[in-house]
């Protein structure tokens, strides 16, 4: 583990490295980059960091968080070159914000519950940014699933929420029933609306369980991806291909892949216990 002093020195080193790369005698590739290109890289690195953090691979998480940090410094460098602000201003701003929004720690030392801290944070945000609506400031460019999560989270922070996950699950069942009814009409606009409502209620059910739907769906996609690759391997062993196999054959192999996965997981669990 590194001390805070070492962290400060290493961060300064990163700032100097990026400045050197962007200097006239620096790297031609880095000098040719545009702000929009780095924004795209930044978004890519954030997703890679989320994937690494979800995989519980500490080494990968450490590396990917470093990549995200590098993109933050790189983006700040563009603004510094334009005479607008520097990474120092970015740090000053976030430091001040963290202190101001935690008066129970850095100010009056008033004891506050976690719920009171959250409410105070939201009130301060509305006041500081001069927002007219509690929903102002949400990132419209976020993926729809994540945006739905943030939307529900923001409304809940101001008291507009289901009492608990069970209550929200009732809403999920209600929306599923409405979707089933829309299927009977055959009207695509109704089906689209009801399916959207079902997605939104599922997102909020996930939120009330303390789970981020964007992350758990990515995990589900990863699981499907791995199992489908295993299915392709099983087909190859039997001298078959996807196009040559019937749906029934694929279903049987899919169940076999699932069963083999459970066996390996169980075996790994026993081995871990012995160790």
Element layout with pairings:
Blueprint: H1 4-22, H2 28-32, H3 35-55, H4 58-81, H5 87-100, H6 103-106, H7 114-129, H8 144-157, H9 165-185, H10 188-208, H11 213-237, H12 247-274
Helix pairs in contact: 1-4, 3-4, 8-10, 9-10, 11-12
Please describe the structure with a list of short key phrases separated by commas or semicolons.
4 domains, Helix Hairpins, 275 residues, mainly alpha
- What average pLDDT do the residues reach? 89
Under CATH, the homologous superfamily of the largest domain reads MazG-like
Structural class: mainly alpha
Percent range for helical residues? over 70%
Q: Remind me, CATH topology of the largest domain?
A: Helix Hairpins
Roughly how many Å apart are the termini? 26 Å
Oligomer: single chain
Task: Please count the helical segments.
Answer: 12
Q: What Rg do the Cα atoms give?
A: 25 Å
| Number of separate domains | 4
| Major sheet summary line | none
Give the low-confidence spans. Answer: none
What is the number of strand segments?
Answer: 0
CATH architecture of the largest domain, by name, is: Orthogonal Bundle
Strand content: under 5%
Task: Please tell me about this protein's structure.
By secondary structure, the protein is an all-alpha fold. It folds into four domains: 4-99, Helix Hairpins, CATH 1.10.287.1080; 101-131, no CATH class; 144-211, MazG-like (Helix Hairpins), CATH 1.10.287.1080; 220-274. 77% of the residues lie in helices and 0% in strands. Helix 9 (165-185) runs antiparallel to helix 10 (188-208) and helix 11 packs across helix 12. The model has no long low-confidence stretch (mean pLDDT 89).
